[in-house]
Amino acid sequence: MGKSKVYFTKEISSDSLIKIFEVLNRQLKGKVAVKISTGEPGGHNFLNPQLIKPLIDKLNGTIVECNTAYEGRRSNSKAHWQAIKEHGFLDIAPCDIMDEEGEIKIPVKNSTHLKGYNIVGSHIKNYDSMLILSHFKGHAMGGFGGALKNISIGIASRNGKAWIHTAGITEDPIKLWNHIDDQDGFLESMAEACEGVIDYFGIENMAFINVANNLSIDCDCDSNPSKPEMADIGIFASLDPVALDKCCYDQIMNSNDKGKASLVNRMQDRHAIVTVVTAEKLALGSINYELICID
Fold first, then answer.
1. Which terminus of the chain has fewer CB atoms gathered within 10 Å of its CB, N or C?
2. Which residues contact 208 (CB under 8 A, 6 or more apart)?
3. DSSP structural state of residue 156
4. Distance between CA 138 and CA 146 in Å, rounded?
5. Secondary structure class of 20 (helix, strand, coil)
6. What is the pLDDT of residues 37-63, one digit of tens each?
7. Helix H segments across the chain?
8. Of 45, 51, 47, which Cα lies nearest the Cα of 65?
9. Dihedral pair phi/psi, residue 85, rounded to 5°
C-alpha cells in the first residue's frame, strides 16, 4: 500500500477539530455515530464535551458507547447513563449505549482468533456512518488507546469485549480475567475486530481523529489514572486508522519530551505496535504515511 495522509494541528480547540475534519473531505452520510470514550467516573482525562460539541453539532451526530466488561460504573446501562450525564455528554448531544438492548454478531473475514465473528452493540444497525473520535493515551492492557482500540474494544458489547480480550476463548465477562495471558493474541484480536466493524460500515463511511492530550499512561477506562507526564501534542486525523495510530505512536517514540519515558515503556512492555502491524496485514490501512501540518 502507498503512503496514507495523516493531518496534524498543534492547536487543540473546537475550531481546529472542525478544521481538521474538513480537511479530510469525507462526507459522513445518513445517521452519524460519533464513537468516543465516555470515561470511567473518577478519571478526568476523557475528551472535554465542550471541545467536541461543535464538531458533533456540525455532523448532527449521536455519541455512541458500549458497556464495559470490567466491573465499574459503566458495566451496566443504568450506571453508565449516570456517568454519561455526570461527565457532561448528555448536555451536548444525543447519546446511545449501543448494547443497551442487546448485541449482534458481525462477520470477521480474516480471523486467526475470533473464529469468524465480532460481537457488537445491536444499535450499530441504526447508523449509516461513523466518526471514530479518540483520545490518544496509554492503556494498561493494550499499551495505548487510539483509533484501532476505539473501533474494536470500544464498539464491542460486554460479551464482545470478553471475546476480544481472551482472543476468542470466552464471551463471558466473568471468565475473561482467567484468560488474559496471550498478550499478542489480544492485540491481534483487536485488529481482527476492527476488520469486522470497518467491513460493516465500509471504510468510505468512516473517518478517524485522535486527540493527543492528557497523555497519561492509563486509559480513560481507569477510575484513578496516573497523571500525564508528557505535554499535549495536538490533533491528528486520517481516513486510514492504521496510519493514524502509527503516526501517533511514532510521535511519542520520537518525542524530545523527557516526560515520555513512562508512556514509551508502557507501549513497549505491552507490545502495543502489534495491533497496528496486524491491522496492516489485514489490509485495513498502511503503516506508511505522510504527515501534513495544517497550521
1. C
2. 131, 132, 134, 147, 237, 238, 239, 240, 241, 244
3. B
4. 9
5. helix
6. 999 888 888 999 999 999 999 999 999
7. 14-24, 49-59, 77-86, 147-152, 158-165, 173-176, 183-201, 241-253, 261-269, 273-281
8. 47
9. -65, -50
**Beta sheet of 129-135, edge-to-edge order:** 95-97, 62-65, 32-35, 129-135, 206-212, 234-238, 4-9, 289-293
How many alpha carbons lie under 13 Å from residue 74 in its C-beta half-sphere? 28
**Cα–Cα distance for residue pair 158/24, rounded to 1 Å:** 32
Domains of the chain, first to last: 4-293 (3.40.50)
What is the rounded distance in angstroms from the CA atom of residue 125 to the CA atom of residue 107? 14
Length of the chain: 295
Find, among 274, 277, 295, 273, the residue nearest to 287 by Cα. Answer: 277
Q: Which residues pair with 209 in a beta bridge?
A: 133, 237
**What does the alpha-carbon distance between residue 70 and residue 74 come to, in Å, rounded to a whole number?**
8
One-letter identity of residue 114: L
Q: Do the Cβ atoms of 208 and 216 come closer than 8 Å?
A: no
Q: Supply 217's cell numbers.
A: 499512561
pTM (2 d.p.)? 0.97
Beta strand pairing call for 289-293 and 234-238: unpaired
Using the structure block, give the residue that is written with the C-alpha cell 473546537: 14
**Average pLDDT of the residues of the chain:** 96
